[in-house]
Design a protein that fits this description.
Elements (H helix, E strand, L loop, with lengths): L1 H129 L3 H14 L4
Length: 151
């Protein structure tokens, strides 16, 4: 029996052992290749995820910068518009003040002229009434002569 066993082992070793070992080695290589491929794919996926997160972060940063720039531009435009409106309002106020001063000066001038004309008319009427008779004229001349100063 030992001889049969040794003979079977020898035949197996000579003819079957190498193909079995070769088949196992091939299977081991296939499994290792699949594991290596899976590890490589996992690493690539991790890298892609990292790259994707970086791209999202960059896009968010660009979006935030665009929003800040738009807000700054809006604030500048509003400030410029307010400043421009304030300047225009001040110009209008100054123009209105000048117009009021001019109208006031014109009105004062007209009133002075009217007062002067009325004063002359009143003086003329008073003098005319006072100087109707000869006696009143002489009396006025004497009063004026006595109050007049000679230089």
């Amino acid at each position: 029996m030992l001889v049969v066993f040794l003979l079977v082992v020898f035949i197996l070793a000579k003819f079957a052992w190498k193909p079995i070992i070769k088949g196992l080695k091939d299977r081991e290589n296939e499994i290792q290749g699949a594991l290596d491929l899976a590890e490589k794919t996992r690493a690539e996926m991790a890298q892609l995820k990292s790259d994707n997160e970086k791209l999202i972060a960059e896009a968010n940063a660009v979006r935030d910068q665009i929003l800040r720039d738009a807000k700054d531009a809006s604030d500048r435009t509003i400030a410029e518009s307010k400043d421009k409106a304030a300047v225009e309002a001040q110009k209008m106020i100054d123009s209105a003040r000048d117009a009021i001063r001019n109208e006031q000066a014109l009105a004062v001038s007209k009133i002075r002229k009217e007062v002067a004309v009325l004063s002359l008319e009143i003086a003329e009427k008073v003098l005319h009434r006072e100087l109707k008779d000869k006696e009143a004229q002489e009396k006025l001349i004497e009063e004026l002569a006595s109050t007049a100063r000679l230089n």
